[in-house]
Structures are given as structure tokens and as C-alpha cells.
Amino acid sequence: LEEGRRTPDSWYYKALRNWIQESPVQVVPRGLLWLIAAIVAFLALSFLAILLLRRQVKTRTRRLEAANASLKKQEEKFHRLYNELEMVFEAMPEGLVLTDTHRRIQKVNAAFTRIFGYGLENVVGQSTSILYDSLQEFAEQGRLRYSQDSLASFEPYEGTYRCRDGSLFIGETVGGVIRDEAGEIVGTLSLVRDVT
């Protein structure tokens, strides 16, 4: 066997050449090669697109996280300011009444409760007409001070008010409409002091 491998004309090399020539050659059809090339190109492009999308998602996520942190700081600042205003509202020695555009009570302070005898739970959603001695005075003050046409005047006026227990008192009131940035009325604010 060793001797047959040494010479190129030996039976070993002849048998090897015959075997190579007789074995069928596997030819891949050209269409299949194009299909494989197209699939590989598609996969490569898909991989690149995924990488690009991941990068864009990371960038947008960072931007959104920064915006979210900014909003969170603004919200905390808003809550601090709201709490400070709430403390001022409650600390006022005069009765404060905050209403909606239809003069329905939305918020009152502790001094209001002391003066009128109504707690917030008793008056929220009620018309401020329950506070006036007469409906005529309620309507007149509404026309003069709390309507769309009224001037932005917070001039004090005196009126007769009715407490929860039915007793009357003379009160000095400073009040008017509250407008938003567009000039639309969003509610009213009144400060009432017992001057009896």
C-alpha cells in the first residue's frame, strides 16, 4: 500500500482518479443561490434596521425620562405652591368664598365657617344666594360684581347676610370675578367681614 502511494501511476492514484471522475457533481441551481443570497441580504438589512431602531428607542427613552423628571419637578413645585396657598386661604381672618361661574360655592375657609356657621360640607355646590338676606340683593350684586359685563372692581360693599341659624349680620364684602389668561370668567372670589 505504501509503495502504491509513492508513484503517480500506481493503482492507488488511478482508483482515486476514477472515483473522483465517477462521483456525481452536486450543482446548486442558480435560482436557489439567488434565493439564499436574497435571504442573507434581507436578514442583514433586518439586523441593521433593528440596531437602528434600538438606538432610536434608547434616544427617545432618554428624552422622555428627562421630560418626565422635569414634569415631576414642576408637579412638586406646583404642590408646594398649592399647599402654601391653601395655608394662606385657611389662615385669613375674614371669610373667603370661592365659587364657580354660576356662583355655586366650591371652597370656603375656617373664618367663613365661624362667621356663617356653615362648614364646607354644608355649602359646597350650593348657590351663594343662601348667604344673602334677600334674593334681590343677591341678584343685584351678581349683576354689579359677578357677571361677564361687570368691571374688574374689588371695591368693598356692605350687605345684609344670613347665617345658618337664621340670624342676620351686616358684612363688608370685597369680591369679583376671577378670569383666566384668555379673559374668560372661571369663578368668583369674595371676602366677607362681619362689621355689625
Q: Could you characterize the architecture of this molecule?
A:
This protein has helices at residues 2-6, 11-22, 30-91, 110-116, 120-123, 135-145; strands at 95-99, 105-108, 157-162, 168-179, 185-194. The chain is α+β, with helices and mostly antiparallel strands and 196 residues long. The longest helix is centred in the N-terminal third of the chain and has 62 residues, at 30-91. The protein starts with a helix and ends with a strand.
- For the largest sheet, list the strands in their spatial order: 2-1-5-4-3
Shape: rod-shaped
Oligomer: single chain
- Structural class call reads alpha+beta
What value does the Rg take, in angstroms?
Answer: 44 Å
**Sheet with most strands:** 5 strands, antiparallel
Summed up, the helix count is: 6
Q: What is the H-and-E element order? A: HHHEEHHHEEE
Spans of at least 5 consecutive residues with low confidence = none
Layout of strands and helices, then pairs:
Elements: H1 2-6, H2 11-22, H3 30-91, E1 95-99, E2 105-108, H4 110-116, H5 120-123, H6 135-145, E3 157-162, E4 168-179, E5 185-194
Antiparallel strand pairs: 1-2, 1-5, 3-4, 4-5
Quick structural overview:
The chain has helices at residues 2-6, 11-22, 30-91, 110-116, 120-123, 135-145; strands spanning 95-99, 105-108, 157-162, 168-179, 185-194. It has 196 residues and is α+β, with helices and mostly antiparallel strands. It starts with a helix and ends with a strand.
